[in-house]
Amino acid sequence: MYYTVESDKSFEQASADLDTAVKRHSFGVLHVHNIGDTLRGKGIAFEENCNVFEVCNPGQAAKVLSSDMRLNMALPCRISVYTEKGKTKIGTISPVQMLGMLSSEAALAQVAKEVEEKIILMIDEAK
């Protein structure tokens, strides 16, 4: 269900490298949520760092939405760079498995497979 790798890079460097990898694979970064800063800004003592990247390939998103508009609730894809007990990690939830729970259309399964392969490449490059 999850694809997660550990990186020897700092949180900041892994985040920057993921941003570059996403763009290199013709995806866009729609937004980056800095969860750690958000929680700390609300007065919560939170020691870890977490950037959640919302990423999207417009062509693939259009295929999914043209088939079933309700799937907008599963888009865009998310890739996280985070720290856990002093280690930097990068991960995502499998688009194939997530879409498999939401739709049984074979054409969408192929789109999810293509997207997942690209996301794994991005994560591995940023690692």
What does this molecule look like?
The chain is an alpha+beta fold. The protein has one domain: 2-Layer Sandwich (TATA-Binding Protein), CATH 3.30.310.70. It is 47% helix and 28% strand. The protein contains 5 helices and 5 strands. Strands 1-5-4-3-2 form a 5-stranded antiparallel beta sheet.
Query: Quick one: CATH superfamily?
Result: TT1751-like domain
What is the SS-derived class? alpha+beta
Overall number of strands: 5
Strand content: 25-35%
Number of domains: 1
Tell the overall outline.
Answer: globular
CATH fold descriptor: TATA-Binding Protein
Task: Please report the first level of CATH classification, the CATH class.
Answer: Alpha Beta
Please report the distance between the alpha carbons of the first and last residues: 19 Å
Helical residue percent?
Answer: 40-55%
Q: Order of strands side by side in the largest beta sheet? A: 1-5-4-3-2
Task: Detail the topology: elements first, then pairings.
Layout: E1 2-7, H1 11-24, E2 28-34, H2 35-41, E3 50-56, H3 58-67, E4 77-84, E5 87-93, H4 95-102, H5 106-126
Tag the structure with descriptive keywords.
single chain, about 130 residues, alpha+beta, TATA-Binding Protein, 5-stranded antiparallel β-sheet, globular
Brief sketch in words of this structure:
The chain has about 130 residues and is an alpha+beta fold. About 45% of the residues lie in helices and about 30% in strands.
